[in-house]
Specification:
Helix content is 54%, strand content 9%. It is an alpha/beta fold and 304 residues long. A five-stranded parallel beta sheet has the order 5-4-3-6-7, sandwiched between helices. Strands 1-2 form a two-stranded antiparallel ribbon.
């Protein structure tokens, strides 16, 4: 199946994306607040199930809550899949935390896992490929850092003849997973839902243009269970206080994950953003200094 924002292998226009997202603001919720967790569990299971293929597929796997839940559900469905985890490791620094958790979870749940370790040489190659695809946005350090993870994973998947890859994209937006959702006044969450809607709308420029440009390069199809229309619709009607408090973001999703049997360590893990958990930003920084640049963005700008 193709995601609703992809038509004939191409992204729909940003205007249409905005129209669809804004149309989801209406209607009654399927759940009372007390039953919201069960609705989330059921809709997420169904969302993953209908995206599973009969052929082997991949999962972008960081060992964080979102990818862990997708892998956990796929394992329950007895699907045939490989998890791909990416990290920069220069052997004299700390091991990427995402890889530590990915490996640990894979052992415990008996998941097929492929680790893609980037050293200086492979990082430089991946960076150059990434900036070539991102073109006008190539000096955006965050975009390149995140794009590196996706590109390295899709390269590995292609070698395994896998062209469908699952991503946890969208979970932060619909379940209030960003620091900005907490806000300055941690007692007042009245702004949370509006921030979530804004986040969904901005995904087109922030995430889709990057991820689907890279996926197209590898003739890969990205599947995003958290961006299922029914799940978005319901998640965006869940009261903010069930999603977030001053100690924890994505609260109801974590509770749902633990209820489903994922395990407390993974359900409640506080994860760094992809570019930090995989240390790709550190790779860009080190390569920039090696090339004589003070700022990472100037190094990226210099690449052809």
């Amino acid at each position: 199946m193709s995601e609703f924002y992809v038509r004939n292998g191409e992204l729909i226009e940003e205007k249409e994306w905005a129209q669809i997202i804004n149309s989801l603001r209406t209607g009654e919720s399927l759940a009372e607040p007390g039953n919201a967790k069960n609705v989330v569990k059921n809709l997420l299971k169904e969302s993953v199930k209908k995206r599973v293929t009969h052929k082997p597929f991949g999962i972008l796997f960081s060992g964080g809550l979102d990818s862990a839940l997708i892998a956990f559900i796929c394992k329950q469905l007895k699907a045939d899949f490989i998890c791909y985890s990416v990290g920069f490791y220069d052997h004299d620094q700390k091991y990427p935390v995402d890889l530590f958790y990915a490996e640990k979870m894979a052992r415990e749940l008996d998941l097929k896992l492929k680790i893609i370790l980037l050293d200086f040489e492979t990082s430089e190659k991946i960076i150059k490929k990434t900036v070539k695809i991102l073109k006008s946005d190539k000096n955006n350090v965050v975009n390149v850092g995140v794009g590196m993870v996706l590109m390295a994973a899709l390269e590995a998947a292609k070698k395994d003849n896998i062209n469908v890859v699952f991503s946890g994209l969208g979970a932060e937006e619909i379940f209030a997973g960003y620091e900005r959702h907490i806000g300055y006044d941690k007692k007042d969450y009245s702004h949370v839902q509006e921030e979530c809607w804004k986040g969904l709308l901005s995904m087109y420029q922030r995430d889709f243009l990057r991820d689907f440009s890279i996926a197209k390069k590898y003739k890969a199809e990205l599947r995003t269970p958290f961006l299922d229309l029914e799940l978005i619709k319901e998640a965006m009607k869940i009261p903010a206080e069930l999603k977030i408090n001053k100690e924890c973001k994505k609260l109801i999703l974590r509770e749902a994950a633990e209820d489903m049997g994922l395990g407390e360590e993974y359900s409640w893990r506080k994860k760094l953003a992809a570019q930090y958990g995989a240390r790709t930003t550190k790779a860009i920084q080190k390569l920039a200094r090696k090339a004589g640049f003070k700022y990472k963005k100037d190094y990226l700008k210099s690449l052809e």
